[in-house]
Amino acid sequence: MYKISLVSADNNNGGAARATRRLVKGLSKHCLNNKFRYEFICNGSPEIGYSQKKPFYKWYSKYFYSNNSIQPIAKIIFNKIWNKFNLLKTTNGNFFFRIGNSINYKITFKDSDLMHLFWGQTFINPEEIAKLDKPVIVTLHDMWFINGGFAYSDNIELDKKINLNYLGKQNFDNQFNMKIKLLNKKNTKIVVTSNWMRQKVIDSGFDENKITKILNYIPNHYSYLDAQEMCQKLLGWSENIKSKTIIYFSGSIYDSRKGFNYFIKAIKELNNEFKSQIAIQILGHNFAKVNELENLNIEYKVLGSFSDELSQVIGYNSADVLICPSLMDNTPNVIAEAQMCGLPCIALEGSGSAEMIDPNISGILASKNNISELSKIIENIVLKKNKFDRLYISSKASQKYSVENTCKKYEELYASLL
Fold first, then answer.
1. If you average pLDDT over residues 286-295, what whole number do you get?
2. How many Å apart are CA 391 and CA 227, to the nearest integer?
3. What does DSSP assign to residue 191?
4. What is the crossing angle of helices 71-86 and 166-183, to 10°?
5. Does the global pTM surpass 0.85?
6. Of all residues in the chain, what percent carry a pLDDT higher than 90?
7. Domain 228-400 adopts which CATH fold?
8. Cα(323)–Cα(375) distance, rounded to whole angstroms?
9. How large is the average pLDDT for residues 17-23?
């Protein structure tokens, strides 16, 4: 029997971590090849549904990373030191990620027959993985693994100039060389979840024959409930919400890439009549007040953060449309989850998000640099000019993100390397 190790920095609720947790659960529950067994190697608390193993650390880092009370503080300190020495003062410290040098790779992966890498920033050292000379699959949830450290970048050389000092640029180039060596190995394969990301990989100089496209697995408890009013009550909306159109935004309102401010600019172009007919529901923001919405005379509700998937399902089923105005993105989980729950989605053209939407059937696409167009789309949603069949959206998504389209394809890829 072959042991497949799925590897991510943690099992929290970030996009890549969530995708990894779901995949290992799906593979463990619906394992179609009895020659495989699976484990999730990460930092985080054990969870029902899969076998989890924490990595073994080197002697000098074992104390910091094995102690649950000290580990978060150690991470903050290490990241501050890293940022201080590599980033310019004006830089967002989360923009440039370091590799991980704390793990004892030989011991951690001693029994692994294949390593499947997901979110590796600050956790995985590509050079150490390559030295093990075992089959490797890298699933790209962002661009970190095909450049020297940026999660997303439209112009890498410009971003290096703007964000990195001399030492940072040296570290960037060193990271990129490590990643090239690992990704170019004969027994390494690259998985993308969108054609947009496939093109990014090709543009970075990698062989197209190494690339396989496999969608993220979404469990089927994400579903259309046909109980919108009940879901709205569970979330604390007032009775008058029934007369309004709820637009759902899920993500950080401060991350410019996620496009919240772009969405707000489109809302501001609406006249007062339309503003009075919409409500905005926000997930991923932990403060009840959103300054950008305070003076717009629009009802809104901040849901905070949902760690449990039942609450997420209720959130999707309470809304009328999801807006995902990311200016640059791969395949956001929120669009797939929303579609599983029958929720139509609005996204911007020119990224992996757009590929997830069948225009006028499962959602609407807007131009990336036309705020007035997005504003008009919102007007039409309020006027119910777009007719969406939520049950049909849910049914199609259930097929698209099913075990057969995701887990089974991964098992076929594993088998090809073993």
1. 88
2. 12
3. E
4. 110
5. yes
6. 76
7. Rossmann fold (3.40.50)
8. 12
9. 93
Of 353, 325, 357, which is closest to residue 196 (Cα–Cα)? 353
What is the CATH topology of the domain spanning 2-217+402-417? Rossmann fold (3.40.50)
Distance CA 247, CA 255 (A): 19
Residue 300, pLDDT above cutoff 90: yes
What burial class does residue 190 get, using C-beta atoms within 10 Å of its C-beta: 0-12 exposed, 13-18 middle, 19+ buried?
buried
Residue type, 63: Y
What digits encode the pLDDT tens for the residues 161-204? 999 999 999 999 999 999 999 999 999 999 999 999 999 999 99
Query: For the residues 19-36, what does the mean pLDDT come to?
Result: 88
Strand positions, DSSP E, 126-284: 136-139, 188-192, 211-213, 245-250, 278-283
Give the phi and the psi of residue 245 in degrees, each rounded to 5: -100, 120
Query: Would you tell me how many other CB atoms lie within 10 Å of the CB of residue 383?
Result: 11
* Residue spans in the chain of domains classed CATH 3.40.50.2000: 2-217+402-417, 228-400
